[in-house]
Amino acid sequence: MLYALLCYNNEAAVCGLSKEEDDAMMGRVRAAEEKIVAKSSFGPRLRLMPTTAATFVKAGQDPMVIDGPFAETKEQLLGFWIVDCASLEDAIDAGRHLAREREFGGIEVRPISAYLPPSEAK
Amino acid sequence: MNDLSWIDQALSAVRPQVVGALMRYFRDLDTAEEAFQEACLRALKNWPRKGPPRDPAAWLIFVGRNAGVDDIRKRSRQQALPDEEVLSDLEDAEPSMAERLDSADYRDDVLRLLFICCHPDLPSTQQIALALRIVSGLTVEEIASAFLVSEAAMEQRITRAKRKVAAAGIAFETPSAAERVERIATVAAMVYLLFNEGYSASGGEAHIREPLCDEAIRLGYLLLRMFPAEPELMGLVALMLFQHARVPARLDAEGEIILLDDQDRSLWRGKLIDEAAALIEKAARHSRPGAYQIQAAIAYEHAKARQASDTDWSAIGQYYRMLEVLSPSPVVTLNRAVAVSKHEGPAAALDLIEPLAGPLSGYFHFHGVRGALLLELGRDREARGAFEKAISIAKTPAEAAHIRRHLDQLQLRVVGALS
């Protein structure tokens, strides 16, 4: 079975970390990952840029693109795509295609800051 | 993490909105700060036991408000409110608090808090010190060390600044859209000044002052989260991130500044550059260019060049031209001239800067750039004059050393010509 592990935290606190604190936090994350690969293997692992770098494409026939606010708290994360695009505009276009297929919610376009490919299966 | 640093991080992350909301409630900065302190103490007591509340800001505002009211009542010898043990379960009160916090009030609270620090009668260093104390919650000791003054002197400076702010009166009504835009611009300028306080440091001071850059970036993010559709705030954060990305490469072993052209670019922090690039791309969608966005775009051109010789000076020249139109200043023209010299040659650049001789007569970089252009054109005697002028007004040993290298080059030419 494939599982997605989604990381939630207070962005204001994490963005406020100094380089040293951030490195220390990532060090702990890597150590935890070491324990995970003892039993399981990883698909891609990634770190997202903060929401301040994101745009939001609202659902609908003629999707509106806004800088924020993003999904309503009553909406849940249902899935995601990773796309490789030459520009933000292309990524938003991809979001538009998906946003047109729905009446509610929308597609958040969030740049990825770090990407680790799948690990070797044990 | 098994220590309590998570509480400290959580408390400092929400400090601006909590103090901002408490100030709106009490209409007084000191009372708001004391109430926040009290709420933090109670958080330190309660959170380890019960776990953090769902909405830490709402919890702190609620508890801080009660503590402040309690304090005011005590002072007026009225009956005290029940203490937090009785009020301890905030679950019922929290949702409504949180709802109100989501509204525009909350961002105006934080903006107000930052804006009062930018009182025009306060010199910029005092504005910055006040913001670090009130908004960021740094201790006087931390601020004093970053500004390289004694704690007592900084204490006095902040107290005086606070008194001035209080005497000026604070506008508590919700700002109009135009006022809000104005406030954002004022506050953004203060944040960038704060960044430069940290960034321009060199020598032994550099390490001590770097936290000022971290703090400026933190405040930039805070503004951007509150006003996510303001392209100039995206530009401001991007600009700071681009510059901050160069930190590992910009000082040599002696702590002297290494010029952009000579920096080891492999040391630049790619993560910050990527994020800054994402921000200016997002800002560009608004087609509302501003000074921060353009400066960030210039920084991006530098960031894109693997080595100094790959730099697209023509693009940079065009950005400086835009900047000249948007916010004309002799220093901007001087910078454009540097870009022009790289892709059109020294003669065109020299024409551009000759009219600046008056306004920039006391500006080190003007004489340095002029000397370098003259040197390139082979006008050695005039170049020497410009370099000597530059050295006489250099502010740091690094600036003087840079010019001395040019003078040495001149000297070599003379020797070469004679031999």
TrEMBL record, chain A:
Domain of life: Bacteria
InterPro entries reported in the protein's UniProt record: Dimeric_a/b-barrel (IPR011008), YCII (IPR005545)
Pfam families: YCII (PF03795)
Domain YCII-related: 1-112
Family under the similarity heading: Belongs to the YciI family.
Protein's recorded name: YciI family protein
Automatic annotation (TrEMBL), chain B:
Residues annotated as domain DUF6596: 183-284
Domain RNA polymerase sigma-70 region intervals: 13-77
GO molecular function: DNA binding; sigma factor activity
RNA polymerase sigma factor 70 region 4 type domain segment(s): 114-164
InterPro entries for this protein: DUF6596 (IPR046531), RNA_pol_sigma-70_dom (IPR014284), RNA_pol_sigma70_r2 (IPR007627), RNA_pol_sigma70_r4_t2 (IPR013249), RNA_pol_sigma_r2 (IPR013325), RNA_pol_sigma_r3/r4-like (IPR013324), TPR-like_helical_dom_sf (IPR011990), WH-like_DNA-bd_sf (IPR036388)
BP GO terms, sorted: DNA-templated transcription initiation
Entry superkingdom: Bacteria
Gene3D superfamilies the UniProt entry points to: 1.10.1740.10, Winged helix-like DNA-binding domain superfamily/Winged helix DNA-binding domain
PANTHER family: BLL0085 PROTEIN (PTHR47756:SF1), BLL6612 PROTEIN-RELATED (PTHR47756)
NCBIfam families registered for this protein in UniProt: sigma70-ECF
Protein name: RNA polymerase sigma factor
Protein source organism: Neoaquamicrobium microcysteis
Lineage of the species this protein comes from: Bacteria, Pseudomonadati, Pseudomonadota, Alphaproteobacteria, Hyphomicrobiales
